[in-house]
Fold this sequence. Notes:
The chain has five helices and 20 strands.
Amino acid sequence: MKKIKQQFYYSILFFIMFFSSLGASQYGPNMLFQKPYEPDDYIGNFTGTFCAGKTDQSYNQAGQVVPFLQNYTKQDILLDFIDRSTGLDIIEKIGTVDFSGELNFQCANFSYYKNIMHHMFLGIGTIVQNLNVDITQSNLELTVALNSHQEKLLEVFEAKIPKNLNTSGILSAYLECGYNRKFMDVGSLEFLQLYVKGAILTPQWVQGSQLSLLQYPFTGNLTFGYQVMGIITMNISKHLNFGMFGTVNSFQSKAVETPYNEHILGNQLLIDKKVISRYTPGSVYNGAVYWELDNFSHHFTLTTGLNFMHGTARKIKPLYPDGYYVTPVSDFNLQINATLQSWNLTALFFELDYNFLTKENPQGPCLTLFFNTPLSGYHYPKINSLGGEFGLSFNYYF
């Protein structure tokens, strides 16, 4: 009995952690927006990027701003959740609970790239993240009368819901290879830069409280991911540049133990059962257009742009222990959860750089401040993030 309850309580906030991590991870460095690397021959660059964000709001299914976690509406509580003494499923509804919370995160990205021959480059990096979710309210309303024994079990149920969830560690490490070339005097343009790269993303290595295998999102944290990125930048006038940025992220599948609801398919946060399944993170598409005032005043560069991200639905295929798929009905029960469906976000971003580099001397440091603010979204936290970056370019041959 005690073991069964512990397993259930560990699953209670499965989707809270799952959904919360979406917002945090996607605002990690080099995910919302990235400029092309410097194309100078054999130059190398070390970069440290730091980012943080906090919110108590989220976008719901209609794109409206609501308190964080309330976009999933009220969650049904079954008698089976608090009393399993009979050993049978008791699907009688006894009440509802409405969650509210707050999300905050801190993220750092340490990376290095090196330009080699024929406009090619190689790079390596790692992303470290600390994520906190505070459950500020869990308003419970009973719809039926309980006996004294059940009331005590309900108190135990409420006490087991954690007030704070935390995870920290290496969110991902990556290897990248690409082509980066700047074409000079192209028609009326002073330059046109083409940047294309491919990267392999490793699964996360984290620790924390109330962990679940599926708490991390579609960015390749649970499984290996593969990213293709393209950037085109062109000079419009003496100090004005225009650029377009885009990425496609896809991920491998993995067999995991997945929490799911059998009797209350509308619940998104309270999960009462588990099943072995084949989990495939949804692909993520990210695009941006930006304008850059390059060296407009004493080595300062100002960049502003609009970003759009879209994540496709995650796929879960329940499995028998021998590896065969179960009936489509069970598959449907998993697919209807809103947190497994698609999401999107439109955000405005600003970046201010102070660059010690010059055309005559492309070696030295660069300092950056950036700010991201969402404009609209669907099933995504409304979170602002602020960050900074330090880069050091140096030239050597090998």
